[in-house]
Design brief:
Pfam families: LacI, Peripla_BP_3. It comes from Domibacillus enclensis. Helix content is 46%, strand content 17%. By secondary structure, it is α/β, with parallel strands linked by helices. Strands 2-1-3-4-5-11 form a six-stranded parallel β-sheet, sandwiched between helices. It is elongated, with a radius of gyration of 26 Å.
Length: 332
């Protein structure tokens, strides 16, 4: 690939002259023609990303993610990238590997790299986060978590949790287990559980619900599910993520429990793989790519000084498949 130095040498001008020409500065007509001929002959294209880094105001949006091996993260990133390209912005991705200290460091690092704004796919928001946002003084948008002092785009986790809980309760299940994660993750660990709890509380006269906790790991979920099957023997297990539901399916198979005849199982997320399982998984479908589009629109508007809602919600839908059975004996 040709560089500015190469173009300058071939055109017989200074490197600074080529740079001035590329940035729309003052260059004589004769010099301009020389540079244009060389650019046309070589097919040279300036590195927009590098140009942006050198500029006082960049068109780069820093995007901080908690992990790379996540369907939700990858789909959200796809949506962000698609829309940012349409808006003539670039995405710079920084992975934290679920390390909060590294996450805070990345906020400061991206600010030093003169990004125009930051999208943070957050798992939690701490005082250290809030201090960092104040210190860097550039637009920040949270995705997946919310805070009253920060622009936020969240999945409607509590309403979705209520919807899946009500769906299961209305199908006659008397003993329902909820398998979630720790409350450090407010969206997944708290709001989804609270929505589910509200739904089953409306059927408190004939439904017993118990709450169990694990990590985001499928293998940990499978191990915990094996225990809850022994401890509680539920007719349905509602899971806070699709990965947890896959772990529960594995545990049910190991316990020789038929799904959905012996136990019904639901997920949360709408991952593509859930349609390929046998039985296919009933789940809450979250529009991750669409949320990415919205996140890109919002951060660019914030960069431009335009108004955006302080709190926005992405859409969800119940995806009804084969993993949930109706307990007809209870309904009769």
């Amino acid at each position: 690939m040709k560089t500015i130095a190469d173009i300058a040498q071939l055109a017989g001008v200074a490197k600074s002259t080529v740079s001035r020409y590329l940035n729309g500065g003052s260059v004589s007509e004769e010099t301009k023609k020389k540079i244009e001929i060389v650019i046309e002959e070589t097919g040279y294209a300036p590195n927009a990303f590098a140009q942006s880094l050198k500029a006082k105001k960049t068109n780069i949006i820093g995007t901080i993610i908690p992990r790379l091996d996540s369907y939700a993260t990858s789909r959200t990133l796809m949506g962000i990238d698609e829309r940012l390209r349409d808006l003539n912005y670039h995405m710079l991705v920084s992975n934290t590997n679920q390390d909060l200290k590294r996450e805070i460091e990345n906020i400061y690092t991206l600010a030093k790299q003169k990004v125009a704004g930051i999208i943070l796919l957050a798992t939690e928001v701490t005082e250290a986060h809030l201090k960092a946002f104040q210190d860097i003084d550039i637009p920040v948008l949270l995705v997946g978590q919310q805070h009253e002092d920060v622009y936020s785009l969240v999945h409607d986790d509590e309403t979705a949790g209520y919807a899946i809980g009500k769906y299961i309760a209305q199908r006659g299940h008397k003993k329902i287990a909820f398998l979630g994660v720790g409350d450090f993750d407010v969206a997944v660990g708290v709001k989804r559980k609270n929505g589910f709890a509200q739904a089953v509380s409306e059927h408190a006269d004939d439904v017993e619900a118990r709450f169990f906790e694990t990590t985001f790991s499928m293998s940990d979920a499978a191990a915990r599910a094996g225990q809850l099957f022994d401890e509680f023997s539920p007719s349905a297990v509602v899971c806070a993520t699709d990965n947890l539901a896959i772990g529960v399916l594995k545990a049910a198979y190991q316990k020789k429990l038929r799904v959905p005849q012996d136990v019904s199982i639901t997920g949360f997320g709408g991952y593509e793989v859930t349609a390929m399982l046998n039985p296919s998984l009933t789940t809450v479908g979250i529009q991750f790519t669409e949320a990415g589009h919205t996140a890109a629109d919002h951060i660019v508007n914030l960069v431009k000084g335009k108004e955006v809602p302080r709190l926005s919600y992405s859409r969800f839908e119940l995806i009804l498949r084969e993993s949930v059975d109706i307990r007809t004996s209870h309904l009769l």
